Amino acid sequence: MEKLTGKKILVTGGAGFIGSHLVDDLIALKNRVVVVDNLSSGKKEYVHPKAVFYKIDVRDKKISGIFKKERPRVVFHFAAQPLVDEARKNPAETFEANIMGTVNILENCRKANNIESIVIISSDKAYGKSDTMPYTEETPLRGDHPYDASKSAADLIAMTYFKTYGLPVVITRFSNVYGPKDTNFSRIIPGVMEAIIKNKEFLIRSNGKMVREYTYVKDISNACVVLAQKTSKNKGQAFNFGSNNVFSVIETVKKVQDILGKKIPYKILNIAKNETPDQYLDWSKAKKKLAWQPKISFEKGVKETFAWHQSLLK
């Protein structure tokens, strides 16, 4: 499709952090959007008022009725248990949500037989640990802890539905995403924002040396739109989406401190378990094949994120 407009689109997890940004962008492009979300981590107030909303878990077999009623032509699958620590504490629930939830959506797409694009949201965590950085799309998927493995498995299963059934599947693998609407304060950037606004010490669970890549949520939403538009030429392919913002945890804290001009007292706890030391992506394939690249600087993204958190927390 040349442009993603005038389509009936289903977004699972559309009340969540990234999904709700995408829903806003899809509606701005004059699409009719259906949101499926169980609100376990998403918020109903994040859902655009013009979207049709169903409160339902993606594992629920009744979702087939939504596919039959709404007949979407494009599907974005965000819905997942999104937290590494929660996955460590409740692995079975994470595997159920992230793997079988994905299977249920793909099965409904297979039976619908009218889908133009299925965008499966994976993660850089699907790669697991690697001796070579940055990850390319050819890096093996070998997550070795519950969250990572759940993303590896769902990613591989999605590819199975392309190879076996010819479904128009494309896969995104994002770096760490930050921006407004992320209220998981165990994550670095939301946690830093909360510490500044509430004037409290920021607790770093790791040793502070772990390296991550940070991409602004609006750039990620745009990546999803571009990939859906270009699915027909890229079926069965995965794409990394990232930025040039590759920092250690302590570097991230100091950069936010400099951008906002606010002192951030922090304490290193060094209690993180099952974390990968370094994770960042080579996203040159997306730049070459999709003509995509991030547009929003870290400075602008941090300022917009801080303004949103100020309005939320004060």
Automatic annotation (TrEMBL):
Pfam families the record matches: GDP_Man_Dehyd
Domain of life: Bacteria
Domain (NAD(P)-binding): residue spans on this chain: 10-305
PANTHER family: DTDP-D-GLUCOSE 4,6-DEHYDRATASE-RELATED
Protein name: NAD(P)-binding domain-containing protein
Source organism: Candidatus Staskawiczbacteria bacterium RIFCSPHIGHO2_01_FULL_41_41
Lineage, uppermost ranks: Bacteria, Candidatus Staskawicziibacteriota
